[in-house]
Amino acid sequence: MKISEWGEDRLIRRITRRIRTDPSVVRGVGDDCAVLTGRLSAGFGAGAGRFLLFASDMLVEGVHFRRAARPEQIGWKALAVNVSDVAAMGGLPRYAVVSIGLPRETRGSFVEGVYRGLRRCAARFGVNLVGGDTVRSPKIVVDVAILGEVERGRVVYRKGARPGDVLLVTGRLGGAVRSGRHLTFTPRVREARALAGRGRVHAMMDLSDGLWVDLGRLCRESRVGAVLELGRIPRRPGCSLKQALTDGEDFELLLAVPAREAARLIRWARGRLACGLTRIGRVVKRNSGGPVTCVDAKGRQVVWREGGFRHF
Amino acid sequence: MKISEWGEDRLIRRITRRIRTDPSVVRGVGDDCAVLTGRLSAGFGAGAGRFLLFASDMLVEGVHFRRAARPEQIGWKALAVNVSDVAAMGGLPRYAVVSIGLPRETRGSFVEGVYRGLRRCAARFGVNLVGGDTVRSPKIVVDVAILGEVERGRVVYRKGARPGDVLLVTGRLGGAVRSGRHLTFTPRVREARALAGRGRVHAMMDLSDGLWVDLGRLCRESRVGAVLELGRIPRRPGCSLKQALTDGEDFELLLAVPAREAARLIRWARGRLACGLTRIGRVVKRNSGGPVTCVDAKGRQVVWREGGFRHF
Q1: Given an 8 Å threshold on Cβ–Cβ distance, is B138 in contact with A62?
Q2: CA distance B184 to B78
Q3: Domain B166-310 is in which class?
Q4: Which of A48, B124, B173, B307 is deepest in the core (most CB within 10 A)?
Q5: ipTM value for the complex
């Protein structure tokens, strides 16, 4: 069986199901970051009432960027996707190590450009670049691992959504790769910190593979279903509904919050979060079908059929 | 200018010279691991008198292993090289994240084998595998980032060697790639902990690129020179002196210790460290030539000329 037949989620389930961790691992595989506490050994984090966050994201030439991309943008994106993972837990990024694989014929100025982008992103979000590895590789590969911190009371997982919650999303979705925005996006650190610190956020994640796929993941981790109100989904100008749902690389935040908090947070966000905060659906009990059901503006159920949403 | 003309050390100097870090970074780029303290923010480590260690190492198919290698061995090596980096600081490995790039046609059983190797190495050295990333890639790439801990009094850098110190090495050198040992080696965690806890170790590193290159790095970081006693270098059976000096991937420990400690440590190691501990030279003041000078069994200076060491 080839991994292309399994798909990413099944592959991850298969390779991680036998992994055992000690009690210092509050959350291991399956969220935007691992959540660690010093209970067992060094006491880090514990005393100060904080958790450590730990994650990594790999970019490969031809898959996540083209070699023609500006090297500064490749560097920015390589760190920004990791910063976004820390933001999605409600945390602050602190340290990063960078492993970079390069063909022998790579120009020095290209590599310096990648590091300029890494440094710009690091300076913007308070990240210390502290090390890594430099190796030969037939294609350019940049893998960043990030360490962040989060107050115990502010950490938000994918798994906390409950039936009755309202689903919110920051910004507008779709067209990130086509427009080049996937190389220059601003991770929602400030927004995530403000939202996780202001109201009770039951679940949060960043949108990297498109709302459709990622909402399914949030539902599975939370053991719930979701009703997506298609008419409310905030689209980037020129994007179809399908693009907004499946394009990916938006790096916006998806949140599940108690219904009474939702209106309060949306009111608060007005004029304060430039990116906006939009209600896009609600959390329901898990049903026997797929995790996500779609409804049109009138609340009638619709399904995806041959390139568009249709009524039954 | 292509990076192949710069070489690894110059490339790293160029891309990292503009990096600025905050005071919580005790040691950034330039050692086996970054050394972090919680002074500025979360207080992790600080209270318990420990530092955090943070590093990453990337393996690329065709460069660090062949696709024909047993997948368990690829997984073992990917984590073991990182465990070795933590050992080289005197620390204990604790957590790792794994980013893996895979061609679409990769067999599921291959990936499961890689993770079996990762889990075996993790269980052996007390490492928690807590997350990572899985992406598409034309060649197999495995990048592991590791978090470790070390007591403040036990951390050892590359930079502490002083003139008059004696150079020691664990194990025997050479032939690691040819013999396949680079895929199955045992990181010297126990040995490094014992040595760093038992005597004053001024400087330590693990040997990944061969004694000749790595001793040069230790000298540059310490701003000293070294005299290598060629007759004393412990070689693997069937290895020439050149192979022992330049083959690389030995993952043995290189130490600089005060002269009066050296004899004591070697005596202590006898019968206790199965790998052995050998005196291979001494640290001297930096001179104007290259950092490392070689002498033969009679103490006469020799130089490398066309495939072998010769007297002038």
Answers
A1: yes
A2: 10
A3: alpha beta
A4: B173
A5: 0.92
| Smallest Cα distance from A124 to chain B, Å | 12
- 3-class SS string, A138-167: CCCEEEEEEEEEEECCCCCCCCCCCCCCEE
> Looking at the domain B3-151, which fold is it?
60s Ribosomal Protein L30; Chain: A; (3.30.1330)
The mean pLDDT value of chain A amounts to 92
Q: Chain B contact for A7, CB < 8 A?
A: no
Q: What is the pLDDT of residues B81-128, one digit of tens each?
A: 999 999 999 999 999 999 999 999 999 999 999 999 999 999 999 999
pLDDT digits (tens, 9 = 90+) for B141-199: 999 999 999 998 899 999 999 999 999 999 999 999 999 999 999 999 999 999 998 87
Burial B39-61 (b: 16+ CB within 10 A, else e): eeebbbbbbbebbbbbbbbbbbb
A166-311 fold: Phosphoribosyl-aminoimidazole Synthetase; Chain A, domain 2 (3.90.650)
DSSP-derived letter for residue A236 is P
B12-26: pLDDT as tens digits: 888 888 899 998 899
Q: B43 pLDDT band (50/70/90 cuts)?
A: very low
